[in-house]
Amino acid sequence: MDNGASSYRRFLEGDKNALIDIIEDYREGLVLFLNSIMGDFCLAEEIAEETFLKLYVDKPKFAEKCSFKTWIYTIGKNAAIDHIRKMSKYGEMTADNFYDIADRQNIEQNYIRDEDKKQLLRALEKLNDDYRQVLYLIYFENFSNTETAKIMGKSEKQIRNLLYRSKESLRNILEKEGFRYEGI
Q1: What is the residue-wise DSSP string for 24-78?
Q2: How much is the pTM?
């Protein structure tokens, strides 16, 4: 996987396959990030599709002031916010949660690890949106505090504070449920 910027440049120069490379490289992580905003996996997939469609149709300029991944996640976050605003005009959104996705690996070998992940995901769902998003971006997507601040529209200090509070909150939730993990 390249950094995405070169694929996007190839796409802008007329190579339609370059967009397929971008989708393959960023789709899964973008959907999971958008799910942390939307609380609905199917809706997050739709917003991710809208994000890639925006790249295809509008061909926005990538100014390279941040990483390509940060840029595309910001486009996705803005699409999610636009969707939430649009839906709020029509009344309350209904959200069906589709968090249990089948693991493609051997279920028997990964049962315990999968159960721990499920417990962690359930605990993450109990966090407020900002806490869930900051943890996801930093620990699941490996964004830096600076990149996370840009995506979430906050300062780096706010991100450090959010990160500290979200880890404390997550630890408290997990401890109440009897889960022990030394890395949190």
Answers
A1: HHHHHHHHHHHHHHHS-HHHHHHHHHHHHHHHHHH------SS-HHHHHHHHHHH
A2: 0.58
User: Could you state, in chain order, the average pLDDT of each consecutive group of 10 residues for the chain (184 residues)?
Assistant: 78 89 91 88 91 90 88 92 82 41 41 63 84 88 90 93 91 78 53
Q: How far is CA 81 from the centre of its chain?
A: 13
Single-letter amino acid, residue 90: Y
Q: How far apart are CA 151 and CA 137, in angstroms?
A: 9
Alpha-carbon distances, residue 6 vs 3, 25, 51, 120 (angstroms): 7, 13, 18, 35
Closest residue by Cα to residue 145 from 130, 166, 159: 159
Contact 151, 74 (CB under 8 A): yes
Burial of 42 (0-12, 13-18, 19+ CB in 10 A): middle
